[in-house]
Amino acid sequence: MVVHVLEEMRIRALGVIDDAVVELSPGFTAVTGETGAGKTMVVTSLGLLLGGRADAALVRIGAKAAVVEGRLTVDARSAAAVRAEEAGAELDDGVLLISRTLSAEGRSRAHLGGRSVPVGLLGELADDLVAVHGQTDQQGLLRPARQRQALDRYAGAAVAGPLEKYAGAYRRLRAVSAELEELTTRARERAQEADLLRFGLEEVAATEPRPGEDEELAAEAERLGHAEALASAAAVAHAALAGNPEDPEGVDAATLVAGAHRAVEAVRSHDQALAGLADRIGEVGILLSDVAGDLAGYADNLDADPIRLAAVEERRAALTQLTRKYGETIADVLAWGEQGAARLAELDGDDDRIGELTAEHDALRAELGELAQSLTDARTEAAGRFAEAVTAELASLAMPHARVTFAIRQTETETEADGIEVGGRPVVFGPHGADEVELLLAPHPGAPPRPIAKGASGGELSRVMLAVEVVFAGSDPVPTYLFDEVDAGVGGKAAVEVGRRLAKLARSAQVVVVTHLPQVAAFADRHLVVEKTNDGSVTRSGVKAMEGEDRVRELSRMLAGQEDSELARAHAEELLEAARAGR
């Protein structure tokens, strides 16, 4: 039962479309029109709504921006609806509005349920809502990588579980291999680095610098180098402050200040201001006495020791050797020593680390071999069921004798280190396992199975792709399928069978098909025609729903290029009747 339906798209200023509304419905909708009328823009528009790549060249010439709006009915319990609501989108009675705006300058904006959202979110929803298939997808199916993806998708959890474990082990192996290669290929450089660090650390340890020692020694050297001048200056200053015993006639500062203090002290009681000044003079006298005492002590303690000065300079030279190599100051040298010791410990531990990594590397390779074998087994089992189901579908698509198979193989490697062991053989492996998956087609009895890229015509490839999608619909369905000329290269009876199969698919999903074949369009529940006006644009009224006589006329045009041909009309009516009877 369809729980999501794309009800309507409005397209403005996109390609040849000026302004058009595409009204869709559950079941099978066919979109037709003359070449260049803009049918493919329907596919392009839906691709934009679902987060597809935006190209400014799509904006109609003369327009500032192209806008595509879509209205979907969704099941409120579905993953898509929950994800949309988490992003802030609002659902109105189960209706979700999506819009995408593309400016002529290339800027792109997306809105979901009235809320601006990243374009990538639309792509996330697309996985649960719509499967879009165009001619480029058919070409993609030719690539073995896409074929492997298709098989894995069909296998479901049987492959997804082992593949997730394999991918995790594979990423870890890559990281271990990179680190191991760096350690082994740079062994010489790392050994040289360790020797230099060891020499430097030994040199620092032999000198035994202390924090701040360089600053202390610089101050001491300055003092010792000028000891005589300092002592003389201290003596002169002391004599000026406290007097010189050898010169009783001399005048000193302490005596003068004492005389001043006595003079004001005698009359201080007569004026508070003068009393304050007397106190201050007394304080000056005390300060002068203290300074004079300190000067005397400084002069007595000053040691003009040339031996000590030589020792200080020698120590400073040793410290300078360190600061020249390992830092501007002794603090920097000590910091370098701590960092160097840590780095040396790391380098000295490389041998142990290499041993650990080598053991882990071998264990991961063994684990990958087991996981790769599990993947191969799961893919082989799923491939048989998948191929059988696709073969059965091809029988319903006018290819009754065709047979589809999968070739699953591994490429052996002569260098065991380049591979993993699967089934007792060293084989090449990658992020998705060791399997090379290829879809083979034998179109008729006696024909050898060949890769579909080489063994299938354009029409056969279209039908193989449709068969694959129908099989997916039974195992991993999506609500809406959009096919862009999936019937390319198909004609006659095969075209009728394609139409019949699309109608069958539409019983459980919404199917929209852009087609040029009347045999396919005849099976549609709803038939839309894209028409251009005389100026070459498609307007709102340019997408019309064909019913009754109008539909017969359109099928006649598709059959014979002549809408009023009686023969073509008769054939069109016959097609419609056959389609109604054959559903």
Automatic annotation (TrEMBL):
Keyword DNA damage in the entry? The reply is: yes
Keyword set includes Nucleotidyltransferase? no
* Family matches, as InterPro entries: DNA_recomb/repair_RecN, P-loop_NTPase, RecF/RecN/SMC_N
Start and end of every RecF/RecN/SMC N-terminal domain?
18-536
UniProt keyword list: ATP-binding, Coiled coil, DNA damage, DNA repair, Nucleotide-binding
- Coiled coil, from the record: 354-381
From which domain of life does this come? Bacteria
Q: Which PANTHER family match?
A: DNA REPAIR PROTEIN RECN
**What family classification does the UniProt entry report for this protein?**
Belongs to the RecN family.
NCBIfam families tied to this protein: recN
| Job description of the protein | May be involved in recombinational repair of damaged DNA.
Q: What is this protein called?
A: DNA repair protein RecN
- Record organism: Streptomyces endocoffeicus
Q: Give the taxonomic lineage as stored in the record.
A: Bacteria, Bacillati, Actinomycetota, Actinomycetes, Kitasatosporales
